[in-house]
Each structure stands twice: as structure tokens, then as C-alpha cells.
Write a structure and sequence with these properties.
- This protein folds into 3 domains: 144 residues, P-loop containing nucleotide triphosphate hydrolases (Rossmann fold, 3-Layer(aba) Sandwich), CATH 3.40.50.300; 58 residues, no CATH class; 96 residues, Arc Repressor Mutant, subunit A (Orthogonal Bundle), CATH 1.10.10.
- By secondary structure, it is α/β, with parallel strands linked by helices.
- The termini are far apart.
- 55% of the residues lie in helices and 8% in strands.
Length: 368
């Protein structure tokens, strides 16, 4: 009976959901369903293709702050590399489902190589969902004002660096409905002032904790490796103390060098210790230390405790709460070493841990 009541409540909730009414008697159900699928697909694509930064450290509180500033017309500026575009993307994505019409125009100064007319046409087409002929810039301005003045619009103009860009795309608030929100990202505060914009949010640098988290995720995938803590602190100070772009560029360049250093540590191991390292990387991370020792000794027929102690001494693994742990970067390196043994044929590798590779080898009988 409890399940029946749950189903009743779910069906009642579903019945009360608003949808698309089939009002045209001449429209077939199949074509009507096709229209619904197209509309939903477009909304899903629009709400997911702007995922923002790969490592969105510090983004959420900035977006929440902009929500407060906007009262859910908003303007945004800050230093180069501070994350204006990334924050604008995140804010845009978080507000899509609450606005009837939306558009984000990224890196306007780059797109404008094709001219204002094409940009105006793109803006109108993607908001109105129809292609219109725009004869010239002046005509485009008129069309934006006439066709969007009664529509609630979320419009993001990214990386604006010239007053004409604003005059030709969003000259005044009266161009749009009262419920609209216009976000402008720029490095030029004077440009906003000259356009009579006084609601300005200046993006702040990452604090030390956020900078450390971002840098660590770029370079080490999670926290810093043992022995790299001092280097990490120096890098954060060097990278202008909190500019995400600077941290990303520096972190990306250091990541291969750290990988090279880890590879040297691995290359210096005895053969049997190398094998134990690869076993742990592929199979035993997070497993009980006693279980790992027993499994390795049963498989290899040799004492495994010595090899594990060597790896601990060289900070390639650690033990905590009775289990063996390895940094994600070391795990990734170990698995890549095995993968490089045979790029195209999993059956020629010394170890298999990915289920699809195992299935492929067993079904295709390609074990060497």
C-alpha cells in the first residue's frame, strides 16, 4: 500500500506539470512530438555546453555574489585573467531555465572580425529562433529594439572593449523588457561608466586556500605530492597571488615537469619493486595492507613487505588506517606505464584493470 501511495503522488504531480497543448487539429501527434523533442533538445544543449572551467574553484561564491548584486541588469568587470568569462558562463548557465530568452556572446572583440551586422543577426536569430535579414548596423539596432523590447532576456556580452560594441548590441535598458538582465564583462571600467552603467561588480582574486586548491588540481589532480609543498607555495605567490589564468598556465607548464620527476623516481627502483608499484597502481590502491602483502606474495612467490617498505621510504605510497594509498598522479603514471606496453592490443599488456579491456581480451582471445 505504501508503494501505491507513492505512485499516486508521483502520477498526480506529473499530471499537474505544464506542457505543450495540441491546439491545431490539423497537426499530427507525431509531428507535434517531434517539435517538443526539438525544443527540449535545444534547451538541454543550451544549458550544458557552457560548463565553464575544468576546475571551477571559487566560482560558486562569485556567482552567488552576482546573484545578490543583480537581484537575481548586471555588469561585471575585473583584471585580465581574473575569471570574468568563466564566472559569466556559470551565472548564465545557472539562470537559463528561469528566463524565456537567452544568449551569451563570448569574446565579442574576436567575433567582430566578421562585422557588427553578423553579430546582430546572430543575436536576433538565437533569441527569436528565426533567421532575419539585417541590411546594416543601423537597421540591426532598430530590429533589436523593436523585437526584444517586450521580451525577458538574459544577455551576456563577454570581453567588451569598445563603446560601439555596447551601442550596437545593447544600447539602453529600454531595448529590453523590465525583467531582463544584461551582463557585460570587460577589463575597462571607464567603458562601463561612459555607457552610464553604475552597477559594477569587480571580481576579486582567489584567496590563498582557493589558489592552492586550483593549482593543486591542475598539477597534482588533488592535493600536493610529498616534497612539493614548498614549490606549490612559491608557484602560488609567483602567479600574481590569485589570478586563475596565471595559476592555470603555470600549473599546466609545471605538470609535465613533475611527471618527469616522478618517472625518474620510478626508473630508479629495483625491478621487483617496480612490479609491486605497478600492481598497487593498477589494483590495490585503498586496499588493506595485509591483504595486499598476502596477494602479492601468493602471486609472485616472493616476500612483498620489502618492496612496500621501499615504496613508502621513497614517498611513492603511504599507509593509513591499515590501508595502502597512492597519490592520484602516481596512480595515473603507473597505469600509463602499463598502457604504453601495448597501445593497441590490451592482451599484450602486463596488467588489465579496465573492464572493457578485460572483456575484449577474453572474448577476442588475444591474450599473449
Amino acid at each position: 500500500m505504501e508503494k501505491v501511495q507513492i505512485w499516486k503522488a508521483a502520477l498526480k504531480e506529473a499530471a499537474n506539470l505544464s506542457g505543450w497543448p495540441l491546439l491545431d487539429e490539423n497537426c499530427s501527434e507525431s509531428s507535434f512530438i517531434h517539435e517538443i523533442v526539438e525544443e527540449i533538445s535545444e534547451q538541454v544543449i543550451n544549458s550544458t555546453y557552457l560548463d565553464g572551467a575544468k576546475y571551477p574553484v571559487g566560482i560558486k561564491p562569485w556567482v552567488q555574489e552576482i546573484h545578490k548584486v543583480l537581484g537575481v541588469e548586471g555588469r561585471d568587470m575585473g583584471a585580465s585573467g581574473i575569471g570574468k568569462t568563466t564566472i559569466a558562463r556559470a551565472f548564465y548557465k545557472s539562470n537559463l531555465m528561469g528566463v524565456i530568452f537567452w544568449k551569451m556572446l563570448e569574446k565579442i572583440q574576436w567575433v567582430l572580425a566578421r562585422g557588427f551586422v553578423k553579430l546582430q543577426k546572430k543575436l536576433l536569430r538565437e533569441i527569436l529562433k528565426t533567421t532575419l535579414k539585417v541590411a546594416n548596423v543601423a537597421r540591426g539596432i532598430t530590429m533589436i529594439k523593436e523585437m526584444l523590447q517586450y521580451k525577458s532576456v538574459l544577455l551576456v556580452l563577454d570581453d567588451v572593449n569598445d563603446i560601439d560594441q555596447l551601442n550596437n548590441l545593447a544600447g539602453k535598458c529600454s531595448w529590453f523588457d523590465m525583467g531582463s538582465r544584461i551582463i557585460i564583462t570587460t577589463r575597462d571600467k571607464q567603458l562601463l561608466t561612459n555607457h552610464s552603467i553604475n552597477l559594477i561588480y569587480e571580481v576579486q582574486e582567489l584567496d590563498h586556500h582557493e589558489a592552492l586548491e586550483l593549482f593543486s588540481r591542475i598539477v597534482f589532480k588533488n592535493g600536493p605530492l610529498d616534497g612539493f609543498a614548498v614549490l606549490t607555495e612559491c608557484a602560488i605567490c609567483y602567479a600574481d597571488q590569485g589570478l586563475p589564468l596565471a595559476l592555470t598556465v603555470l600549473g599546466s607548464s609545471l605538470s609535465p615537469k613533475i611527471r618527469e620527476a616522478l618517472q625518474i623516481s620510478y626508473d630508479g627502483l629495483d625491478d621487483i619493486v617496480k612490479e609491486i608499484f605497478l600492481d598497487i597502481a593498477c589494483f590495490f590502491k585503498g586496499e588493506s595492507t595485509n591483504h595486499v602483502i598476502q596477494a602479492l606474495e601468493a602471486y609472485r612467490g616472493k616476500p612483498a613487505k620489502y618492496g612496500i617498505n621501499v615504496l613508502i621510504d621513497k614517498a611513492l605510497i603511504n599507509t593509513s588506517r591499515g590501508c595502502i594509498w597512492m597519490h592520484d598522479l602516481l596512480e595515473e603514471m603507473g597505469r600509463d606505464i602499463v598502457h604504453q606496453q601495448s597501445l593497441d592490443n590490451p592482451g599484450k599488456r602486463s596488467r588489465l584493470w579496465f573492464h572493457e579491456d578485460v572483456y575484449h581480451v577474453l572474448t577476442e582471445l588475444k591474450m599473449s
